[in-house]
Model the fold of this input.
Amino acid sequence: MRLHPIGLTVLLALTAAAAPAAADETWRLDAWSSTRWLGDTSAAILVGGNTLGAGGVGGARRWLSIEPPGVLADWLGHVDVDSYLAAEWGGADGEVFAGLATHIDHASYTAGGQIRIRPLSWLAAGVRAGAGAARTGATVEGGGMASIDDHRWTSVSSTAIRIDVAPLHSQRFRFGVSTELGYVATGAVELHAYPADRPDAERSIPTMYESIGHLDLDGWQWSIGANVAF
Amino acid sequence: MKTLTRIVLVLILAALTGCPAERPPAFDRDRLLLGPIPLKDRLAWVDSALDRVVALDFTADRPAVLTRDIGRSAVYAAPTPDRARVLVITRGEEALERGQVDEPPQLWDIDLEGGNPPRAYQVGSPFDRIAVSADGSLAVTYFSQGGPDDHGFFRNPNELAFINLAQEPSPTNPVLKTVRSFGSTPTGIMLSPPMAVPGAADAGLRTFAFVLAQNVVTIVDATHPERIEASIRLDVDGGNVMPREVVFAPLSATAYLRSDGARDVLEVVLANDPPVGGPLSNDFRPVLAELGAGSGPADIAIFDDIAQPDRRWVLAATPGTREVVVIDADTAEFRKVDVPDPVDRIVLFPGDRPTVAVLAAIGRQIDRVHLLPLTRLSDELALLDVETIQVGQPVRDVVPVPGSELAMLVHDDDRTVLGLLDLTYGSVSPLQGVGRLDSYAFTASGEYLVGTTRQVARVGFLELANLHPTDLRLDTAPTAIFALANGKLVADHGAPAGHVTILPGPGAGRDEAQVLDGFLLAGILDQEP
Done:
């Protein structure tokens, strides 16, 4: 699913303009490190069994915080409804044909929503879903040839469950760590054998670059991170 | 909490069951790229990791990429003489790990022109050399001098496989045969043009395989490989004799053999010898005659007399006596022509109906060549003499220019200094290049010499009519240049991903050229696991 730029702008505007709900904290900033087990053969061809490592930052805003009625409040605590923006960058290295070094490059920019429960003051858990745009690229080099380097933009969507633990927290501030497990689906991109140092088209012989196929970076992803909320 | 716990458990279970993808084993293999193999209007590469032949078809304005799947572990490839097909030997493999398959050694016949599906012939052993008959209908696979690799329990370096490429694979095609050995192993195989054995009950044209080995030549009727071979011992006088070269006179079922360590040229006539020992007996016997070269011949050439086409001559260069021996192939009578230098190279011009022989002493690097007229050989009273031409630089190689009276002289090991010998006038035009001429070709029309050097991103052209040099700048340095039958020129840049520059012809400019990049990795990400 591709998030239209206008939709992204609207979401950002809503995030900034809306009034905070009555709750302890309104904003949360996250930083994390993640590992993705690439599930498509195209990715495995490039990097074998290696995982895609990434790091990211994001921010979330709480829109709604409700206290379930009756006994549910004892079990679930507060139920929060948040929106978030996230950016993630990562890559994976590999080798093909015992001599050509390969690298996958990935960056994603997503927005979405999440629902969290806070059964304890230091513990929260939730589910989230989001979508956005991703830049997927690959390089192949070695063997005395000019490096192949190409990238494309595509759509990305993800869903995950999340657990937050906040060892340091007060009424208006909390510092915590989190872990997420989810699935990331990216659109396959067709890559071509473009050289890393592509000659100036005006001064070079007209060149046709063959397609090396479609690269898909779908996979399960696990991340750990830290966050502050205020 | 229970709901959340269940979600967590479901996700963990799903993650555990959704294992990362495994990649096809091809991408973990060492990759041996065989090629480019020049064909008529195509170039082909054999990829031993991806088990496929990749060909570029230059018949249209835009090159097309063709791929043909073959067996595992390609080890050797050769084009057929008509340059329409590629023959590939695949080693096969044993299924010891994931993704491997049990596959025997095979010879693949890949038709890149006619569109016929690839044919695989089970050749039984992992041969690494191919000899193909001139008409492309027969192939013989054999082991190189290194012998079989270290796989396998028993290894037989004298084994051959005879494949009838005109027939489908069958239990009787190929035919495996071990040639009679006297302690040596084959060093090469020469296949004759189709020829008939005079007087034989089987009057059909047949191909004969001459299997060369130290001190012995074995002749096999390759059209009927199941029949018993004939062996010729070359060391009857003692000493070591290494057969090097065979030239054929198919109309008389004759072969002429030059050997290192032998004094004379050996004439081998295949004569009728009716079979007496059952169906596996052959119907010929080799009749031998030593043609009196008188000293160890270093090069031989055979040609038909231009005035009397039914008369055949053999020229033998004997550097030990500084002579060229002219031998009447029918009568074995010979005449000796004194040459000032120890000639070891004979090149005939023109190639189809020669009128002059260029004689050069390549081994001694002497700065002159000699011309021997061939038009008056049949005149027994004519004085045979050579005309000496000083060329100013040591001669390291003589290369005939197709379809012309020109010969390219190479003056140094690095091929940086060349000369063009005009046989009509006996003149030599020196040529100097920017570097080593690593690769060169003559265009299909014979009008241009094109060359490249690895360090310079240019293609050089020499118009042979007036020796006018021009060049074209490329974007990257080439490793080889190929002149195709349709007039196009293709510079290969030697990249593992595939990178060629295509020129429509020698006079083309950069705006008419095309570069194709990445064709050897085309579609690799779309491969099925």
